[in-house]
Write a sequence for this structure.
């Protein structure tokens, strides 16, 4: 974890069609030139967020979001935004992302200052076992990867500016 400024975590289920979107975006990001200090993980169970976010200052989570919106829309949410969205009664994850983040706040309250953004790709409720994503969701994957790359560059520039400002103030 040394040197990690931002952790990017793709969440999904490969055998649930569009619910694979989070992992697909994480894999697309690995092919891009990312700023130093970024590491990427793929998980199928959001309960692992407790372990992966412990001690991290900034995180970008990527997941599919069952929504009434058209499949393939991209949303950038805070944990509070996500908690305000009604959850579907069925999930391909054992634990919801919102539930895992709530557990994190209880088990590791020092992570309350962690800057977390959730990039969601909207999907219809998965209805069958398949490894194939729908065309609209598959088309959203590179767009979401580009958005995250842009967010990472902005975040790293702010980190650089803050560190530079600290150095200037101490001289």
């Amino acid at each position: 974890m040394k040197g990690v400024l931002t952790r990017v975590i793709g969440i999904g289920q490969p055998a649930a069609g569009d619910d694979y979107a989070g992992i697909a975006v994480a894999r697309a990001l690995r092919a891009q030139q990312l700023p130093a200090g970024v590491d990427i993980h793929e998980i199928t169970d959001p309960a692992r967020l407790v372990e992966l976010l412990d001690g991290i200052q900034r995180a970008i989570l990527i997941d599919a979001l069952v929504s009434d919106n058209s499949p393939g829309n991209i949303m950038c949410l805070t944990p509070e935004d996500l908690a305000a969205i009604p959850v579907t009664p069925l999930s391909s994850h054992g634990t919801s992302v919102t539930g895992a983040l709530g557990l994190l706040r209880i088990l590791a309250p020092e992570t309350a200052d962690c800057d977390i953004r959730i990039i969601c790709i909207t999907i219809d409720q998965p209805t069958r076992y398949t490894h194939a994503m729908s065309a609209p969701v598959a088309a959203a994957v590179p767009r979401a990867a580009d958005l995250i790359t842009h967010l990472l560059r902005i975040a790293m520039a702010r980190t650089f500016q803050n560190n530079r400002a600290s150095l200037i103030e101490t001289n």
